[in-house]
């Protein structure tokens, strides 16, 4: 060894620092190089001992095979400073330690240490008694021998630990639960016993500074007392975290005891539990109980003078001021507070006074619990109460906009704010975001995200304003920005705003993470042939000129050079997809060279939209089939930790499971270490997960596990499923094994928030049990959707199991299938079946405190009260319910449960009423819920037999109703529609359609009545109105009624979508000479005078001027066809000029049928002038059939031919990434109808959400011979 090396390794501090960067295997090799290095590195090798489940079972619990390892542990136990273990080793170690203490009870050193003087003898004897008192096993620590521990060797105690992590949850815990019931032989592996053993180890290590406890049984009084006593004895403790092992609640009293047991040295306290404020059956915990020899519990009365971070358990009903204030009063130096739910009845002023008086250093408000107030009322109150220019961090989930107050609060702390993260946001106005960017000088982190991108987006006008951004220290930016659609012509793009916006971005020189997402709307064609708009996904948009250097020869602009100072940029993602870029925008080798030169730190660039990955593979040679591409799979394996959203089908799932199984087997003997790759070594394939090799997967390489997914979407279908339904050699591709494989992937990703399963086989008992187990383990799950692959009908027990397996965090549950009307013959599902060591199914008993949306399977004969009420009783905060068919005998009882239990219910959706089409149950719900509460009412196949009752029910909620949709109606009285128009003040959406237009139309008498319409906030309206036929002049036209009707229409100033369809009857002579009537199709009718300004010379009336205030109108369709207009009705250049002036946003105007387009161009020459003035305007083909069954129309463009806003007629298989379904339920068309894969094993669609990292994708434009992969 050189002199320099000798000096280096002679300094313990340097050696310890070096070993922090080495794996355990590296330290072991270093230790074996020489005697000196062995002596130096031995304590460092044993410094950290992680005994995870796999290592426990192979190294330590098998005494016969691991005597040397246990002996080495005993010799070096004093060198261990950090211990991480699970319940199995705890049980073994407790037996070994007890044997060690029994063997050393008669210590010879004590007998030899006695001196001649009384003083010395007394002192040594006193010390020995104290030592024995400390080390002997307390009576409250369980000591039970099992077959695994009966031969455990004597093991000395851990006494010098500084960090202790323990989980009492073991993979075999439920097997042990069952054996305990049968013979009581393994009760020591129960959570209570393991919890007490954990407390004993803590008492033996007074120097502990960090403690993490997972799965302790805090419902046992003895465990609570012993844990409190152990915590209070740790005078050096700085950080303690207590996590639950299941979904059980703990009492408020337990939270208070643990909090008041913490020593004054504590800096961070995290209790990620759930607490219940209700009185429970158990009596209060007796703190004076001595627990055999432990003595009473003494609680701290002084404040925690060093506590900086506090996370209290979530509370279902919310904390009151009386409950929360005692905690805050004990935290005089609190800096970071994880906000819990505060009860609405709590005296917020009292809480604020306590914060102002005691928590004067509070500066970090962290994300509240899933139960937190989504409107942000309490968090804004706290922000207002904290001293000005003090808050540094604001994290929150959910927020309903209060623009004035929120903007002022951010300005109040703008000089010190460093992190703002508002996720799950429903609404955030652009000026607030702009104010943050232009005022918060110290801001390092900004994220604003939510479900409705257009409601939380920074407008392009604000983004491109001339005011400079002050947040020059920003390192992480995630924001939505409104962006023009990709179909917009270059000369119509707002280049000035875009350039200024890009200059602002380029000024953020310290930026490392940039997620820039576009927001906007795009039109689509419904099945009924109507043009509507829907919110665009961010990867359907792109920022013009952002990733281009421009082209001086064509004059095409590019702004990539404005980002040359972003030298630190590592991640750039969002609306950057190359397949969405405008065709005329240059991008190529020049841009690639620029990126290499100016962004040297870039690791991830989201250049490809996951929805268009198969299409892009044909466009770029590097994107070949993932299974046939070894380089692509290698890159996929290296970057698998970056994947957050995984979307796949059954064929790739089978391929991946084979690769994962090979990976786990090859790494089963690897050493443990701190990095994430070694964490995967503890994973093994459960016995219930099928893994069979077929032709497509026989060459599958080793693939590591997904462990950091937040969104998982899987389809258990494959194109040739029917071909191998009877082929046992390919049975692995059936729905049941694929569902089990999907369940395993779910279980490996505890942070999942969104799960979508298509084609899950819920008729298989094992599938049901395994799926319910993994669902219950996802504590962050918010959205779960399960759809069938065919006409599957589920047992009621299966529905109940899935529902009661959902965790407390669940917000949205959709089971899109049908329920059986009777129980199966083979009896109920056996929930105690362990499915090869998986254990019995344990169902949740507490309510789903966060569930807002519920859709249960449909049931043809209807649910009884006994069947449906248990579900509703578990949904105390239910807001939206997709109502299934309800049996007539159960209506009143179910309505009563909704009134008493689901007090926040406000969205009624019934799409399959079956025999309840008369709406009796719906009206019962509207009548029994709290008055002025229902905001949405959707009902299909309605037959209005009780018009007065329906009208009264609507009036009961007329002040708050915002959305009414009555689709597929059989009959609806005109008086009911009129009631809606004259009473619903908050209405924004009204759709009424059906199979018989004459039976669901608003009569002209009601439409033209003098009573004012109050629904002036209406934005979307589809209606049938009775109108006189233009083909007869036998009766004078009712001009008074028509004029008043048009005046009502003109009062709807916020209207954006208007489908105004006429209906009426015409007489005809049958073959036998009988005079009959038939319904006139809406495209054969026209509203007299509606599209005319009149002619004073002839006295012909015109009412177009009445609609001048509809400046927001984008779609106007219905009975407007020009060929149906009366010949004497004037229309021409004057009307065209009026339209251009008053309806500037109009995009769709149905003036002709598709087959009459050439004729209308010849008949109306002034259309050419309209084409020049409004090139975006589109005429729409009117379907000859009722739009309930209409086909998608072929778009007709008035103006520039290449600008389209609709999808032409194509087959469903061609629309693999097509338009959304008209129903509210999402359909997985983007991966169920994906193109057939070309190579063995299928193809995976892998998206990293906002963390996509696909090496092959990042190098789409690279040379084909360049090796794909990330920089080493």
Automatic annotation (TrEMBL):
<dbReference type="InterPro" id="IPR032675">
    <property type="entry name" value="LRR_dom_sf"/>
</dbReference>
<feature type="region of interest" description="Disordered">
    <location>
        <begin position="1209"/>
        <end position="1272"/>
    </location>
</feature>
<protein>
    <recommendedName>
        <fullName>F-box domain-containing protein</fullName>
    </recommendedName>
</protein>
<feature type="compositionally biased region" description="Low complexity">
    <location>
        <begin position="1236"/>
        <end position="1272"/>
    </location>
</feature>
